[in-house]
Design the sequence.
């Protein structure tokens, strides 16, 4: 009986459908006998631009009265082969209808007109206060309308007579020189026949006069920036960052530099605890960017995998040519620096952990399950310094040989009870730098290596004396969640002068503004200064190979 009911339902449905009359007129069907072509008449034949004259040609096999609908709301044309201009950009449906034969519809994309600004080729790089450059502009003008130009130049621009210039109304503003380092943004505003067009923009990369190091930093909701590390620039020269034109990502906790390439560890959209029941909310990745931002490659993605496996923090071992990276809270994995286009697959031994929480003697004897990861590093003697920020926070030190042992590593735990998001170690000067959020005054600490206790061996906890090493009180914002605030998520050392750089994201109540900061030695102590103010920063990295540009 069930089978009969199904058959009856289908027959009834077909009967109802057949009662509906939807017979269209024959000319509403696309007809292979109707056809047409189109092309631009005059200049700019490759592009279909606003104002271009477009020739439509009827190539139909059948003859009859023609009606053209250009899809832009203008009156229809009954010419056989009409010409037409579009007054605004867009995708248009052009329809040719031939009486008693049918119709044909084609899509036509009309592009707007805008200026393209370029810089004429120069020998070498554009060097601050030395190199003159010339700009050129390309502006399609199919109707030969009047063009109005307005150039807007950045601070520190001079003409070939060394006269400061801020604007120009000439088509060609002549030779220009820049007195400041960094991306020099030039804007060209134009009007064509009185109509304001989209602005043209060019960023001229201006290098320093000497070879210096470069620091990279990831701006929140912005791009990766590069800044020349200059501490003694002439009074008339300002050091501005270069915008690499590459998005920082969603939560780029760490940047790492190696062999002319920048590695960006982006923890993805979801940070902190999320209920990833199906294990498919991951979207973190490791990207590889050339030092000038010209190329971007993917090293590893965790797309639609378990979110807690997204890459968070990293360290590059230059001798091994390996990148070590943590997930949220379980352990550290590693990949060869040469790897590209990988999808994290935890069932593949290639992605096995280098170390996990429960593979060290600290587990249940120092930290517990769910101990959150933070920025980590390794000293030249092979000792790993691995901060944990939840469930008994501190810095847990170990060597490769300690992995898998139930004994507490001999290097021992230090900084117990302190929420340390990042650290840097200056082995030459025997100093340890810590970014502390909780367990002591929030801020930057510079501690002699000799004052770092082995608390696992019973030495007095650093928490008892750390107040003596506070360099700068800094209260960070509270983005993130308890135990895993973003805070100062990376510190990077310049061993040449002992400076430590980091990005500070200020709490709204802080008197110190967000920015790129530098902790540097000053006599027998350390001081903290702002290098770039007004930007919220995640990871930072230094290219130690000196150059004028990149």
Sequence:
């Amino acid at each position: 009986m069930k089978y009969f009911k199904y058959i009856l339902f289908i027959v009834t449905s077909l009967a109802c459908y057949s009662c509906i009359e939807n017979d269209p007129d024959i000319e509403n069907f696309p007809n292979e006998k109707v056809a047409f072509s189109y092309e631009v008449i005059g200049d700019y034949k490759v592009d279909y631009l606003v104002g271009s004259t477009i020739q439509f040609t009827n190539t139909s096999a059948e003859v009859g009265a023609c009606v053209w609908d250009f899809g832009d709301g203008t009156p229809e044309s009954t010419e056989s082969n009409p010409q037409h201009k579009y007054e605004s950009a867009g995708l248009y449906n052009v329809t040719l209808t031939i009486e008693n034969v049918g119709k044909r519809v084609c899509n036509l994309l009309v592009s707007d007109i805008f200026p393209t600004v370029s810089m004429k080729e120069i020998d070498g790089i554009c060097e601050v206060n030395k190199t003159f450059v010339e700009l050129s502009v390309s502006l399609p003008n199919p109707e030969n309308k009047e063009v109005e130009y307005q150039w807007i130049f950045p601070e520190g621009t001079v003409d070939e007579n060394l006269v400061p210039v801020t604007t120009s109304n000439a088509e060609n503003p002549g030779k220009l020189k820049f007195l400041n380092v960094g991306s020099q943004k030039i804007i060209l505003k134009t009007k064509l026949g009185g109509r304001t067009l989209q602005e043209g923009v060019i960023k001229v990369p201006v290098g320093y006069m000497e070879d210096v190091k470069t620091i990279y930093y990831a701006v929140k909701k912005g791009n990766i920036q590069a800044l020349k590390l200059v501490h003694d620039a002439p009074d008339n020269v300002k050091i501005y960052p270069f915008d690499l034109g590459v998005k920082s990502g969603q939560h780029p906790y760490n940047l790492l530099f190696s062999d002319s390439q920048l590695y960006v560890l982006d923890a993805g959209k979801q940070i902190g605890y999320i209920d990833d029941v199906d294990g498919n909310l991951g979207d973190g990745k490791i990207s590889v960017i050339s030092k000038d931002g010209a190329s971007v490659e993917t090293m590893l993605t965790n797309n639609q995998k378990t979110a807690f496996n997204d890459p968070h923090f990293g360290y590059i071992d230059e001798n091994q040519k390996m990148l070590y990276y943590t997930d949220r809270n379980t352990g550290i994995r590693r990949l060869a620096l040469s790897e590209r286009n990988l999808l994290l697959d935890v069932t593949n031994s290639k992605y096995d952990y280098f170390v996990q929480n429960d593979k060290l003697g600290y587990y249940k004897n120092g930290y517990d399950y769910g101990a959150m990861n933070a920025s980590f590093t390794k000293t030249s003697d092979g000792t790993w310094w691995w901060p944990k920020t939840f469930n008994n926070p501190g810095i847990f030190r170990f060597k490769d040989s300690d992995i898998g042992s139930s004994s507490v590593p001999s290097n021992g735990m230090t900084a117990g009870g302190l929420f340390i998001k990042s650290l840097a170690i200056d082995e030459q000067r025997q100093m340890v730098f810590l970014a502390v959020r909780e367990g002591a005054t929030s801020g930057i600490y510079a501690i002699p290596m000799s004052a770092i206790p082995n608390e696992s061996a019973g030495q007095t906890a650093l928490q008892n004396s750390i107040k003596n090493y506070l360099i700068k009180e800094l209260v960070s914002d509270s983005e993130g969640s308890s135990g895993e605030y973003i805070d100062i998520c990376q510190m990077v050392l310049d061993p040449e002068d002992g400076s430590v750089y980091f990005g500070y994201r200020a709490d709204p109540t802080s008197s110190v503004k967000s920015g790129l900061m530098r902790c540097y030695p000053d006599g027998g102590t350390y001081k903290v200064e702002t290098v770039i103010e007004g930007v919220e920063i995640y990871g930072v990295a230094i290219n130690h190979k000196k150059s004028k540009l990149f």
The chain is about 5% helix and 40% strand. Residues 116-207 form a domain with the Immunoglobulin-like fold (CATH 2.60.40.10). Residues 1-28 have pLDDT under 50 and may be disordered.
